[in-house]
Design brief:
The protein has 14 helices and eleven strands. By secondary structure, it is of the alpha/beta class. Helix 6 (121-134) packs antiparallel against helix 7 (138-157), helix 7 (138-157) packs parallel to helix 13 (264-276) and helix 8 crosses helix 13 (264-276).
Amino acid sequence: MRCGFASLALAALMALVAVNARALADAPQRIVSLNLCTDQLLVDLVDRERIAAVSFLATDRTLSANASKLRGLKQVRGTAEEVLALKPDLVIAGEYTTGPTVDLLKRLGVNVLVVPLAADFAGMKATLRTIAAATGEPARGEKLIEDFDNRLSEARSLVPARPTAIAYQVNSLASGSGTLLDAALEAAGFRNIARDIKLGPAGRLPLEELVASPPDLIVLANAPNDFKTVLADNLRHPAFAQLLNKRPHVHLPMPLWMCATPRIADAVELLAAMKRSSVAMSHSRPVLSTRTIP
């Protein structure tokens, strides 16, 4: 009887392996990504051999949190001619990616998946699941989501207090509700004052108002070159410099929050670490923290 059960179990296992092998064989094997954000999701979901090309921004360390992982893959600028030359069986694009190219590829019968721009964690997970299903890697997609949720839960549980914070950018812009920065602040256990004053996704908070009622933490959410522009006058203002001398602040690298990928968990962990630090939450001296993108 035991031998019979063992044989049945072995047969079931072999059948499952065969089904998975067939599913992978039927999945697209020459995938092209035309978008910086889909580049990063794709390289986490499929083996490199299945990626025919990624976007020309894929390895830009100032923009991509997966730059090192994407290094060595062919890059394209998004013209229909170069994509067609690769003979892809799946092209993944963002909803704002090179519209004429996407339209032409569809008319020519190319399998094109257009994914929406996600502005929160739920949207990120939905996009990840969509790409995972299209590439035949639903299990990998669920594992990425599980790991992401676990990291967020751990970061959220470390310190129960909810200090205030703001993500401040050039031109006095602050990220309110409906943005990934707001989602990261909330996940790390901060109360985003931009949400409190109903600034929306990208409202302006005049510097004088910020100086008059500063939060517990100021998050500098800018690209390095932003500080060289005229729009960065608010960040170079002496009053802002004095504020940073009195308040804890952190530079949150743009690659960690610009795209809705599981790497935004890095941003949440960095913010949670600032919240944990008794030095960071005291107003005795500023704290400047950075994270290097590999």
